Amino acid sequence: MSDPDQTEPPGAPPRALAAFVRAMDRFAEWCGLAFCWLIIPLVAGITYEVFARYVFHAPTVWSYDVAYMLYGSHFMLGAAYTLKRGGHIRTDVFYQNWSFRTRGLIDASLYLFFFFPGMALFLWMGWQEALHSWELREVSGESPWRPVIYPFKTVIPVACALLILQGMSEFAKSAWAALKGREL
Predict the structure, then answer these.
(1) Is 148 exposed, middle or buried (0-12, 13-18, 19+ CB in 10 A)?
(2) DSSP string over 125-152
(3) Is the pTM here over 0.85, yes or no?
(4) Contact at 8 Å (CB) between 54 and 2?
(5) What distance in Å separates the CA atoms of residue 36 and residue 143, rounded to the nearest whole number?
(6) 83-92: which pairs have CB atoms within 8 A and are 24 or more residues apart?
(7) Which of 5, 61, 81, 102 is most buried by its number of CB atoms within 10 A?
(8) How many angstroms separate the CA atoms of 130 and 117, rounded?
(9) Count of CB atoms within 10 A of residue 77's CB?
């Protein structure tokens, strides 16, 4: 005999689907909140460089490398959070006039045929590049400081994996909207 408290309201999404979407969305939120802290050492490093260069006339050799690695990591690792928040580029002039079901159908199709294959390719190629960089213990040739660059190159496959996970949540929400004409 089924428990009346355990029954789902009519038209409600399956519990497993709703739980999966909630878990992926929470994970993207957590990642966004964790990776946003990269901005602090970025700003601190650039501020130090400005003072060292213009006040003490002693520029650093490391600030350029630190800046592009921290900013690149901040940008890439925050992409899944941005996807969850709907902050990526979309042609809203058309999109806003479509029905919820049409938006869901278009979004689900685009995730399935473009997003996932593209992210899988980026993940695979980024992983290969990161592994190669770790094997070589690659260093940057951008400055005389020559810092190690393999951890920075690892950010690419990690960001792609995070985007794929959040993309699965967004696909589920879009497919539900296409099928049911309302939000998950």
Answers:
(1) middle
(2) HHHHHHHHHHHHT-B--SSTT--B-HHH
(3) yes
(4) no
(5) 26
(6) 83/28, 83/163, 83/166, 83/167, 83/170, 84/25, 84/28, 84/29, 84/32, 84/166, 84/169, 84/170, 85/32
(7) 81
(8) 20
(9) 20
Q: What are phi and psi of 12, to 5 degrees?
A: -80, 150
Q: Assign residue 174 a region (left: φ > 0; alpha: ψ between -120 and 50; beta: otherwise).
A: alpha
Q: Please write the tens of the pLDDT for every residue from 61-96.
A: 999 999 999 999 999 999 999 999 988 887 677 888
Residue 99 to residues 10, 51, 172, Cα–Cα distance (Å): 22, 54, 17
* pLDDT tens-digit map of 5-53: 556 666 788 999 999 999 999 999 999 999 999 999 999 999 999 999 9
Per the structure block, which two tokens stand in for 108? 């689900």
The answer to whether 32 and 74 have CB atoms below 8 angstroms apart is: no
Token pair 């980026």 is found at 122
Asked if residue 177 lies in contact with residue 103, where contact means CB atoms within 8 angstroms, the answer is yes
Can you state the percent helix, strand and coil of the chain, rounding each to 5? Answer: 75, 0, 25
